[in-house]
Each structure stands twice: as structure tokens, then as C-alpha cells.
Amino acid sequence: MAEKLPQEIESASWAGEMGEKWNNYVEEFEGMIAPVGSAAISHAGFVPGEKVIDIGCGGGATTFEIAPLVIDEEGNGQVTGLDLSQTLVNTANQRLTDSSLSNVNFLCADAAKGSLDTTYDVLFSRFGVMFFEDPYAAFQNMRIFLKDGGRISFVCWGPPSEQPWVGQLMAIATKYVDLPAPVPNAPGPFAFGDKDYLRDILEKAHFNNIEITRWTGNQQLGGPGATPESAARFVMDALFLGDALADQSDAVKEQAYNDAVELLQGFVVDGNVELQGCAWLVRATC
Ligand SMILES: C[S@@+](CC[C@H](N)C(=O)[O-])C[C@H]1O[C@@H](n2cnc3c(N)ncnc32)[C@H](O)[C@@H]1O
Given a cut of 70, is residue 2 above it in pLDDT? Predict the structure, then answer.
């Protein structure tokens, strides 16, 4: 039996294999989480002139979206994307070179440790803050990135029980392998599914006015326009179904892929594979 569930992912793996995987499918991942990302950006209420840090920025999609929202007429207002994966920071920098934006930069660093050269008005993140080995220490550390009076505004996934497709895909994996029971609050996409745990982390890091708001909506698995076949290939190559079956034979993997295609055919709406998601939009002040 595997030692842990494939969804239980710590920051360290992002510096290596996970960062490569996200990078290989960066357009698909970003396309899939674009709707919840838009909700998170509008929830953050950016104001021209603000200095923002985008934690766990990946390939920088949200960093680039924030940039025009914070630049003012004098050219003040900037956004820094910070990520642990050098591969993803390289992708973000390449995209920056190809853009005309003048108020963006990227840093490769671990948000859980150390300080930065400057302080920020807003710490934003789309799904980049759930992988810390010690989230209590990490949020205490990130608080020092903020100016007095600054704010934190991020989005993280709600509990897996409220993302029905996750259980359905995992049921395919468990046809072929035994998987251990989930460890509550383990680092990974669903680390903060329990709102009380999340609130406790923020309170212990001395954040005030904590608001945790539920977001529900559809996301397009494998990005807009993916077919059941391409979405199934995506979950095998880049999401947890492939990880769960990593040690299995090619025949088992092929069978699981076929199972996933069959499952996903039931979710096709208007030419997309639409899956329901639940996330927490989180805001707090220093
Ligand atoms: C699920 S991806 C989200 C990427 C990006 N925010 C987006 O929405 O497109 C999580 C990101 O968090 C980054 N990450 C994980 N742990 C981190 C840490 N301790 N410090 C900085 N970045 C981290 C990963 O490298 C990865 O790019």
C-alpha cells in the first residue's frame, strides 16, 4: 500500500517533480482554475498604487492579471510573483519578456522561510499556500512580508468531500491499488478544507478581521475545450490519478485511463469537461 495519498503534497516536491509537472501542463492548469482565480482577484479589491506579492505564483498567470489593476497614472503600483520552483519562475520570466508589462518581477524563494528586501500592501495567492510542512510557522513568516495595515487575500480549496469529481477519480484508482486513509490537514491541495483549522493558523499568526467566504463554481478539467480523452490524459499525467497508479503496469494504467474517459464523458457541457469545485476566499488584515 502507498504510504500516503497522492494528493498529500509538501512544498519540497514543488521545487522538483511537482514544479516540472505543473510546468508541462501550465496552460491546462491555468485554464482550469481561471474562474476561481478571477473570483479571488476581484475579492482582493486591488487599488492602483498598491505593492502586491503573489505567493506560489507558478507560471505567473495571476501576477500578470494583477499588474494592470495596481499600476497608477504615475506608474506606481507593482506586483512580485514568488515561487519555490525555479522551472516555473523561468516560465514566468519568459512570459514577462514576451509581455509589455513594466511593473512585474519574479523571485524564486521559499515563502515559509526568511525575509524579503521590501514589504507589501497585499499578499495574494491562488492555491499557492496549502503545501507548507508547518503552516503555522509559514503564515507567521509571511506576515512579515506585509506593511503595517497590509492585508492578505488568497484562495484555497475547500474540503475534498465538496469536490465530488475528486472522489470519483479516486474510486478509479482504488479499483487497482489500496490507498491509505487521508491524514487530516495534511499539506496538499485540500490542507485547508477545514475552515476552523485555517482560521486557527491565521489567528496564531496574529491576522485580524479574518473572513472565509465560500466560492462554488465550475472548472473545466484540462482547460477550456478539453475532450474526455484529453482531460483523462491530463489526470493521468499531471493530476493525482496518475500518481496513485505510478507503480502499476502499463495495462492497468491504460484501463484506468479508459475508466476516466468513460467517467468524464458524463461531465461534458458545451464542449468542455465541467466539474464542480468549492473553494475558500480568504481575507484578513495585519
Ligand atoms: C497549485 S500551484 C498554483 C500556481 C499559481 N498560483 C496558479 O494559480 O497558477 C502551487 C504553487 O505554489 C508553489 N509553492 C508551493 N510551496 C511553496 C513555498 N513554500 N514557497 C513558494 N512557493 C511555493 C508551487 O511551486 C506552485 O507553483
Answer: no
